[in-house]
Specification:
The protein contains 5 helices and 42 strands. It has about 400 residues and is α/β, with parallel strands linked by helices. The protein has 3 domains: about 15-115, Udp-n-acetylmuramoylalanyl-d-glutamate--2,6- Diaminopimelate Ligase, Chain: A, domain 1 (3-Layer(aba) Sandwich); about 200-205 and about 220-350, Hexapeptide repeat proteins (UDP N-Acetylglucosamine Acyltransferase, domain 1), CATH 2.160.10; about 355-395. The chain has a 12-stranded mixed beta sheet with strand order 10-13-16-19-22-27-30-33-36-39-41-42. Strands 11-14-17-20-23-28-31-34-37-40 form a 10-stranded parallel beta sheet, with no helix packed on it. Keywords: Acyltransferase, Lipid A biosynthesis, Lipid biosynthesis, Lipid metabolism, Repeat, Transferase.
Length: about 400
């Protein structure tokens, strides 16, 4: 089975009729594709394949239909494809002459798209319209596009592709095979491992959001007493002289930001994937193979273990520890430590079972209020004395 890989770079094979790039390598037989995926072929494995397509978009016998779920399978009878990728144990129409059978369709699709990926077009060398500091070190086969900036003493590894309007700060290290999309900003002293992908307008190595007052201010008094006692007469900036260190195979989405550490380093472990518009504060430590989905915000000095999943719009307070293999559901607010291999959700986040109990309790409140009101009326009738029955709260009235 094909493993994880950074997007390919180079010239694409052109369609002989249209001249449009279609895939990163010459046409393959169905058997060759199946072998690359570690999957089995049923039917005619000698079929020549040029494209992988949605079943409804197949135009002829050299298109491979990706029919990996029941909805896509339903489109096969009307498709022009004669080859398909399907899940185990499904029936295919007679029009399909050959098929690749996979056990885990979505995982197979990842490998399939690696095969048919359209490459990033880049030629080795430095564009005359780019600026590279005289003392920067650039590998001979690296590609630096027009209007990119590479600062003093920066080191650019083998096979790195830096696209237009990318900034690489002084003393930064970009590991081999990394791809920096347009507008990415890599700050001074940032260290990046191999095969990282930085999407457009991501910023790695920003100043941390850290400030202090001469005397205990409003935030400190609110945390300790629950009241605002101090005042922020003067706010002094705490400089960030640390850096950011990314491991190998890290991916950072468009518009995501990672602040550098105050004194040491903010660290992102090998294989971690960070979605668009994620904010990671100063001194945060993220483990290996984590997934941080869109709009996640992680405050400073939080420690996240390995293989943690934070779903969309999760907010994490500062100095929190999240154990390895934990999963936090979307829109949750994490304000306390989370143990390993647990599922938390809600605002504030609590263990999943407790969250469902709370949701059920909220849903029952209206009925509970009605029951209590009815009991009060009955007691009044039995005792003959006045029992005050309060009006139902406005937000609960129908």
């Amino acid at each position: 089975m094909l493993g994880s890989a950074a997007p390919s770079v180079g010239a694409a094979i052109e369609d002989p009729d249209t001249g449009v790039p279609t895939m990163t390598k010459p046409p393959m037989t169905l058997t060759e594709i199946a072998e690359a995926l570690g999957a089995a072929v049923e039917g005619d494995g000698s079929l020549t394949i040029r494209r992988a397509v949605h079943p409804s978009e197949a135009e002829g016998p050299e298109d491979l239909a990706l029919a990996m779920d029941k909805d896509l399978m339903a489109l096969l009878p009307g498709s022009k494809a004669v080859a398909a990728v399907v899940a185990e144990g499904v029936e295919v129409p007679d029009t399909i002459k050959g098929r690749i059978v996979v056990k885990r369709p979505r995982y197979a699709m990842a490998g399939m798209l690696d095969i048919f990926e359209r490459p990033v077009h880049a030629e080795p060398g430095v564009s005359p319209q780019a600026y590279v500091a005289p003392d920067a070190v650039v590998a001979p086969d690296a590609s630096i596009a027009p209007f990119a900036y590479v600062g003093p003493r920066a080191r650019i590894g083998a096979g790195v592709v830096i696209l237009p309007h990318v900034t690489v700060g002084a003393d930064a290290v970009i590991g081999e095979g990394c791809l920096l999309h347009p507008g990415a900003r890599i700050g001074e002293r940032v260290e990046m491992g191999a095969r990282c992908i930085i999407h457009p307008n991501a910023a790695v190595g920003n100043d941390g959001f850290s400030f202090v007052t001469p005397e205990p201010g409003s935030v400190e008094s609110a945390k300790t007493t629950g009241r605002v006692v101090g005042t922020n007469v003067l706010i002094r900036r705490v400089n960030s002289i640390g850096t950011v260190i990314l491991g190998d195979d890290v991916e950072i989405g468009a518009g995501a930001t990672i602040d550098r550490g105050t004194v040491t380093a903010t660290r992102i472990g090998n294989g971690t994937k960070i979605d668009n518009l994620v904010q990671i504060g100063h001194n945060v430590q993220v483990g290996t193979n984590c997934m941080l989905c869109g709009h996640v915000g992680i405050a400073g000095s939080t420690i996240i273990g390995d293989r943690v999943v934070l779903a969309g719009k999760v907010g994490v307070a500062d100095h929190v520890k999240i154990g390895s293999d934990a999963v936090v559901a979307a829109n949750s607010g994490v304000g306390m430590d989370i143990p390993p291999k647990s599922v938390w959700m809600g605002y504030p986040a609590v263990p999943r079972a407790r969250a469902f109990e709370q949701y059920k309790g909220l849903a029952r409140l209206k009925r509970l209020y009605a029951d209590v009101s009815d009991l009060k009326k009955r007691l009044t009738a039995i005792d003959g004395g006045p029992v005050k029955v309060e009006a139902e709260p406005a937000e609960q009235q129908e």
